[in-house]
Amino acid sequence: MVLNAGITNVIDLLQGNSDGKKFTHIVVGTGNAAVTGNETALTGQLAKEILTVNNLGGGYIQFNSELTAGDPAMLIQEMGVLNEDGVLCYRQVITGQNKVAGVTYSINYKIRVQ
């Protein structure tokens, strides 16, 4: 879900307003509370730089990154996207995925712009 802060950010981007910032980081966290739109961070948030972006068509965009072997073990239950100012603009609760220490994981995070 696009969060309240994210709506403002996207509107600024679309208007060419310098307050609109591009999305630069995927974040993962351990919380599983329902999305309210007012979130400002994830529980146990770990931010990873977006390495590539794919336009998938049909209003979908995919952000790609990775969790490295040195990142901590965690049960990932939520994901989101930060803009370049560190503002959480998008959050989603997901089926829990175990991140094991010492293992590298690809993150492919697809969202729909509608």
Summarize the structure.
With 114 residues, the protein is mainly beta. The protein contains one helix and seven strands, in the order H-E-E-E-E-E-E-E.
What characterizes the major β-sheet? 4 strands, antiparallel
Distance between the termini: 11 Å
Task: Assign a percent range to the helix content.
Answer: 10-25%
Secondary-structure element order, N to C: HEEEEEEE
Task: Report what the structure shows.
There is one protein chain. With 114 residues, the protein is mainly beta. The chain is built from 1 helix and 7 strands. A 4-stranded antiparallel β-sheet has the order 2-1-5-6. Strands 3-4-7 form a 3-stranded antiparallel β-sheet, with no helix packed on it. It starts with a helix and ends with a strand. The model has no long low-confidence stretch (mean pLDDT 89).
List the helices and strands and how they pair.
Blueprint: H1 4-15, E1 23-29, E2 46-49, E3 52-57, E4 60-67, E5 74-83, E6 88-99, E7 105-112
List its salient traits.
about 110 residues; mainly beta; three-stranded antiparallel beta sheet; 7 strands
